[in-house]
Specification:
about 500 residues; alpha+beta; 19-stranded antiparallel sheet; 15 helices; 19 strands
Length: about 500
């Protein structure tokens, strides 16, 4: 990337931070809007947005729709909603414009982040006023300007307003986002009862989301994949739950070696209930590479180190590491996190092959040699099952092969929990609430006991963070999170469910 392009990307990413504030304001606008309709939310705003928009967020403000009513009811249950609403309205509205967004009574509102030839990020806020306006002059309001185009109050930079006005005057809106076939296909696959939807083009994912820190950065990494054209996102709200549906449009001609393979999830019936987190995938190495990428650049060297170590061990085992152990980890794999003192226990469960146990036994000596002089394997008992425990300084890893399963854990207690049997994760009420409706074939399956994860975080110092303290009461409203993904040649889909009892 040349210097000019790098500067342009920094400008765009800087604009994203301020523009995201507007997204929440759109929710506020909905509280004062009117109307009444059923079916998918109307989206006339997309006709005023250029087809190459980086990010587009659209909200139904029609309080006559059941979807909008449910969303407002759910939002008002979060303690900080009222305070955030007032703060964000104050930030968005410039007194010199003389416009009160809360008094607009249309059916929709939207935010678009635009790319430009100059490299300076543009933004458009479009608010349906509920009535047609005659040609209006542009009024400067601090750093942005506003005008009326048709039914919409439009706020943005002069260049952005000019682009919206040109699309309105073109008549057929031929170069608008609404005419973008990938955008249209993604939106058509979202739930009709959504209250909000969004679109991120491939450039938007890679230039805006992925470079961000925190949740936005993780979302960008997870959305990004070879052949990505763009991703559509829909939000559905219910009385005690929220559902996010993601539909990514892909180029079927592009090979995607990193895409998870589909599988029929079954290991949730083998791991114990009460886990803090569960991730089911097909192929542990692929999952690990995506997790390391999402964790950020600080883990870049770890992936290379693991690959070198695996290559050495495979050579020393005459290729048996790949044939008998790593091959087992290329099928369905479950990764669980269990509460424990002084640290939570991470456990991996996979379907074992016939010679997985003997191969691991043969690899103990070269593994110990690779880790240093103090590394030793020793016999241990895990829930009545014979297991092997590796100790190398602060490192402690146990493994066992039984009942057709390979179980690897950071503590023998993790293996014991799997060996004991009893109630399993798929019988847990919170799991059934957020992940029980997963389709028969998925490419990943995730469950988080959010309440217990927050409790664990507070015990390990999270409670001392001022940033966490400011959102603690809101986060505690979420009981559990479940998610899954699936896909075919030209699209991939994901669904995220939040239980908010």
């Amino acid at each position: 990337m040349n210097v000019r392009a790098a500067i342009a990307d920094r400008r765009i990413r800087a604009a994203l931070g301020g523009a995201l504030v507007v997204v929440v304001v759109l929710v506020v606008i909905a509280a004062a809007s009117g109307g009444g309709s059923s079916g998918p939310p109307p989206d006339e705003a997309a006709k005023l947005v250029p087809a190459n928009a980086l990010v587009y967020v659209h909200l139904s403000t029609d309080t006559g729709r059941d979807a909008t009513k449910a969303a407002l009811k759910l939002a008002q249950r979060f303690p900080s909603f009222g305070r955030l609403r007032n703060t964000l309205l104050a930030r968005l509205q410039d007194p010199r414009c003389g416009t009160d967004l809360r008094k607009q009574h249309g059916e929709e509102a939207a935010l678009a982040l635009l790319s430009s030839r100059t490299g300076t990020a543009g933004s458009l806020v479009l608010v349906d006023t509920g009535k047609e306006h005659k040609a209006a002059a542009t009024k400067a309001c601090g750093l942005v300007s506003q005008t009326y185009i048709g039914r919409f109050l439009v706020i943005g930079q002069q260049q952005s307003l000019a682009a919206a006005r040109a699309l309105a005057q073109s008549g057929d809106h031929g170069t608008s986002l609404a005419r973008n076939p990938d955008f249209a296909k993604a939106m058509s696959g979202l739930p009709a009862d959504r209250v909000a939807d969004a679109w991120a083009s491939a450039d938007g994912v890679r230039r805006l989301l992925a470079p961000q820190g925190g949740v936005l950065g993780v979302a960008g990494v997870l959305l990004d994949q070879p052949g990505l054209k763009g991703a559509g996102i829909g939000l559905v709200a219910h009385d005690k739950a929220a559902r996010v549906v993601v539909r990514s449009e892909l180029d079927p001609a592009v090979k995607r070696a990193q895409t998870f393979k589909s599988f029929e999830p079954a290991l949730q019936q083998q791991v114990p209930n009460g886990v803090l987190g569960y991730l089911g995938v097909s192929g542990l190495s692929t999952a690990l590479s995506r997790v390391l990428a999402a964790a950020g650049p600080q883990t870049a060297g770890l992936g290379a180190l693991l690959r070198r170590a695996g290559h050495q061990l495979d050579q020393q085992s005459g290729g048996r590491l790949t044939r008998e152990v790593l091959a087992a980890l290329q099928g369905e794999v479950a990764v669980t996190l269990t509460a424990s003192v002084p640290a939570p226990v991470l456990t991996v469960v996979a379907h074992a092959r016939k010679d997985t146990g003997p191969t691991l036994a043969q690899l103990e000596t070269p593994i110990a040699r690779l880790l240093g002089k103090t590394a030793r394997f020793q016999a241990t008992n895990a829930g009545g099952r014979p297991a092997r425990l590796l100790k190398a300084g602060p490192i402690s890893i146990a493994y066992a092969v039984f009942d057709g399963k390979l179980v690897i854990s950071t503590a023998a207690s993790g293996i014991a929990a799997v060996a004991r049997g009893g109630d399993h994760l798929d019988q847990q009420d919170s799991f059934k609430t957020v992940a029980g409706d997963a389709p028969g074939k998925v490419s990943s399956l995730l469950f988080l006991d959010f309440t217990e994860l927050l409790r664990l975080g507070e015990q390990t110092g999270l409670g001392d963070s001022r940033a966490y303290q400011s959102v603690r009461d809101d986060l505690q409203k979420v009981r559990a999170v479940g998610a899954w993904s699936s896909g075919s040649g030209d699209e991939s889909n994901a669904e995220i469910n939040l239980s908010i009892p």
